[in-house]
Model the fold of this input.
Amino acid sequence: MRLQDISICNLRRRKAKMIFLVLGLVIAVSTVVTLVTVSRAMNADIATKLDEFGANILVVPKSDDLSLTYGGMSVSGVSFDTRDLHEGDVGRIRTIKNRENISIIAPKLLNAAKVQKRDVLVVGVDFEAEVRLKKWWSIVGTRPETSKDALIGAEAKN
Done:
């Protein structure tokens, strides 16, 4: 009699033990499969969320800054040799080394203005790209579609 024959005879004699053994193996395998599936689904979901918000790169004009301190206290810095970015520079962004990783380019033009004797920040944007980039925006009313349309923030409307 071989070892295989002995184990088969033992399983036939102890049917309850065999059922519990098979049931335990089925539960163990199904638990492992479930955990692996849930783990992969969570990883895919997190990767999608990170891709949506992603690593944002801010491109600003080159300038040389001189930070000043007097007696250990910081005094406002001075910028000199500032160069402006032009609209043609936006297209050059698509020529960088890792350009295939760029999903959205949303250029902005920032300027200060006085509105009703208050200093406010005016931002010019490409609305189509900006809305794709900032999915969390909650726009009340119609979305700006032409170059003469404007979007006003919650603080400015009050």
User: Anything to note?
Assistant: The mean pLDDT is 80. The beta strands are 64-70, 73-80, 108-115, 118-125. The chain is about 45% helix and 20% strand. Helices lie at 3-13, 15-53, 87-93, 127-133, 154-157.
